[in-house]
Design goal:
The protein is α+β, with helices and mostly antiparallel strands and 119 residues long. It contains five helices and four strands, in the order βαβαααββα. Strands 2-1-3-4 form a four-stranded mixed beta sheet, sandwiched between helices. Helix 1 crosses helix 5. The protein is globular, with a radius of gyration of 14 Å. The N and C termini lie close together (10 Å). This is Arsenate reductase.
Length: 119
């Protein structure tokens, strides 16, 4: 199990705290220091079952500067979104847990963390 975190994020700290309380074995990826490649983002999106625009932090300054709110959200524009996430990792919603069964969850709640643990 791996969790993508921003240590400054309270949701990330809560998720790792819950993983620790449950005695889970996991690795931490500080995705702002070690940004995922476009290939890794595609793989995580497939595991999440989501499109890139569904995991974008639209209120971030970078999102506003790029005008993401107005970008098309159709499959033919998927690569453009993934490229933006790879170049601006701060835009990635967090935390993301990749579970041992090959799935992944955006773990912003205790329930989502427990869901990842049950897989």
């Amino acid at each position: 199990m791996e969790i993508w975190v921003n240590p400054a994020c309270s949701k990330c700290r809560a998720a790792t705290r819950l993983l620790d309380e449950e005695g889970s074995e996991y690795t931490v990826r500080r995705y702002l220091d070690d940004p995922p490649s476009e290939e890794e983002l595609r793989a995580v999106l497939d595991r999440l079952g989501l499109e890139p625009w569904e995991i974008v932090r639209t209120q971030e300054t970078e999102a506003k500067e790029l005008g993401l709110k107005d970008w098309p959200r159709e499959p033919q524009h998927r690569t453009r979104w993934i490229t933006a996430l790879a170049r601006h990792p701060k835009l990635i919603q967090r935390p993301i847990i990749t579970a041992d069964d090959g799935s992944a969850v955006v773990a912003r709640t205790d329930e989502a963390v427990r869901d990842a643990l049950s897989r």
